[in-house]
Amino acid sequence: MRRQLYIMVKEPHPGRVKTRLGRDLGLTRAAWWFRHQTRRLIRTLARDPRWDTVFAVSPDIEGLQSRVWPAGVMRQPQGTGNLGDRMARIFRSAPSGPVVIIGADIPDVTPRLIAKAFAALGDHDAVFGPAPDGGFWLIGLKNTKPAPRDLFKDVRWSSEYALGDTLKTLGHFRVAQIDTLQDIDTIDDLNTTGTV
User: Fold this and answer.
1) How confident is the model over 131-140, as pLDDT tens digits?
2) Domains of the chain, with CATH numbers?
3) Which of 38, 135, 144, 191 is the most buried (most CB within 10 A)?
């Protein structure tokens, strides 16, 4: 069973991506940052032979037809709903085997960290890459068939409870955690990571 890495991407239009960052930088500069950050991440991860990479795109039709993202990488629509609905859909539609999902707004992601997450799934049912704000930048499941029925139920997204709430939905799963990384939501996050 091949390892599957899903990168969640949105079309980088001003006002559609990184709106909190856009309050500080301006919507156009925030969208520009996201587009270039995502392209850098894709160059770093998408051609690694240790896993198959899939872009989980939004909005669905525009993302499937987009010329922003490199051709030759499989795409799948995220669909509707909150972040949990969209990630649960990815897990349920993925092939059997280890699946890792990341966002595109984490500058410090490296192939070594993705490999570390997949390695953790060797003897754990799930893996997380925590974020300092109480959320997470990476989630992975050892086997997506079946995905937990209540996965992401009642998670308080965009809060300091997101990781803890998600862990509760996994019940008896053996869970590993890898490195804590900062995702970029605000100008302070950019300053913290040194990417300004």
Assistant:
1) 999 999 999 9
2) 4-193 (3.90.550.10)
3) 135
